[in-house]
Amino acid sequence: MSQKEKTTIVLFSGDLDKAIAAFIIANGAAAYDHEVTMFFTFWGLNTLRKDPPVSVKKGFLEKMFGKMMPRGAKKLGLSKMNFAGIGPKMIKHVMKKHNALSLPQLIELAQEQGVKLVACTMTMDLLGLRKEELIDGVDYAGVAAYLGDAADAKVNLFI
Fold first, then answer.
1. pLDDT tens digits, residue range 74-95?
2. Residue 9 forms beta bridges with which residues?
3. Lower CB count within 10 Å: N or C terminus of the chain?
């Protein structure tokens, strides 16, 4: 039996369009029976945040980061043509019109297909994010764990 192909994706961006692209690629790779790891760092971590606020004890700077960053996949802006929030509404409308999956649906599909979602613990510490604030089913690790997965992968993407 041959070993599964491996794909890794670092999602550094917190932009809706880039997150959608990352999850489309991850789901495609998983559908082709690749072992897929997505590593979320810096602004990409916002994709994994829960929509409702979660009450956790934080310092002043951590609270400020929490208030300034978008909370969850439904709140991300576009990298271009954001237009004070109108751009994401337009792209979501067009996607729905064309029966494309929304970002929350793409995340759910990825989890169903066994895509490993890994939150960068160092960045979580820097931004003051707590495990309780992220969606269920996420793994937590540092860059060494990502590099272990990436070393064996034929496809490594940074988005």
1. 999 898 887 877 888 888 888 8
2. 38, 157
3. N
The pLDDT of residue 40 is above 70: yes
What tokens does 11 get? 């999602």
Whether 21 shows a pLDDT value over 70: the answer reads: yes
Name the residue among 135, 152, 112 with its Cα closest to residue 27. 112
Residue 120 to residue 64: CA distance in whole angstroms: 20
- Report angle CA 144, 44, 27 to the nearest 5 degrees: 85
pLDDT digits (tens, 9 = 90+) for 101-132: 999 999 999 999 999 999 999 999 999 999 99
Alpha carbons 29 and 56: distance in angstroms, whole number = 36
